[in-house]
Write a structure and sequence with these properties.
Blueprint (H helix, E strand, L loop, with lengths): L1 H37 L25 H15 L6 H11 L6 H17 L5 E7 L10 E5 L2 E14 L2 E16 L11 E6 L5 E3 L8
Antiparallel strand pairs: 1-3, 2-3, 3-4, 4-5, 4-6
Length: 212
Amino acid sequence: MRKYRHEIDNVRAHVQSLWIFIGIELGTILVLGFTLLRAPDDIVVHIPPDLRSGATVRPDEPTPANVYAFTFYIFQQLNRWPENGAEDYGKAIYSLAAYLTPKFRSELQKELELKGRRGELINRVRSIHERPGHGYENAKVIIESETSWIVNIDVELHESVKGMSIKQTLIRYPLRVVKFAVDPETNPWRLALDGFTLEGPVRIEDEPKEEE
């Protein structure tokens, strides 16, 4: 009889240890579930364009090269008027709204209205291209703070009206860029153009050609 009672006690002890183990497992699952709920839905990792020497990247920390690429791409699209500036400029501002801070968007809207009243946009076609040989370099991106940068882009500006060229010049645009994680769904870069610096755009003199 004692033998059977001893076996029953062993079984009860084993069952009790199993319940303790199950309780620990459930607690671990709850902790992991809570951690996952608090984790961000997505993480943006900015990969530098040149990885030949390796790179250390951290989530939501764009490198200067990434900031420059973003700035040039968005600004180029903003200044792409393929048919008629009176319509294309407004469409560009609207379509790129997620990549512009409210302040800069308001400034562009005012410029659009002013140029529209003056009739400067009718049938005007505009495009900008990166100045050959003057692409990204470290000196063109100035780190203003952990969340803002000053980016200088050198471009060739082309404008025409009804097929007649009216402007072809070299310009440096100094643009301020800021972190802007307002709507990651429409702005995966989580960056935005915040306008020009106080110096504003500057015309660049073309480099003289060497005599043969």
